[in-house]
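Please discuss these two lines.
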Amino acid sequence: MLDPLSLAVGAGLVGAGWAFGRFGPRRGTGRGQKVLARCGCGHDLALHDRETGKCHAETSRKGMHGLREWISCNCRRYTGPIPLEEVFAPPILPPES
């Protein structure tokens, strides 16, 4: 009914899997880090206008006399990944008709 050789092989596989998971190489995924969808300009979807796609973020650059000045981002359209809410679920409110 229960073959001792099969039980020993199964226990060895479980032990080897545990040892490899415990002491093996780690992946570079940070547990607390959140991955954000970014546009080509480096800003996320929250900073882009939904209708026009224009980026509302500001970036700093070196201006005259070594001072920093804030300029608006030149991005005219969001080029990052499309959120799943826009693909699968159309907006419910406000009604268009």
The first strand starts at residue 58 and ends at 62.
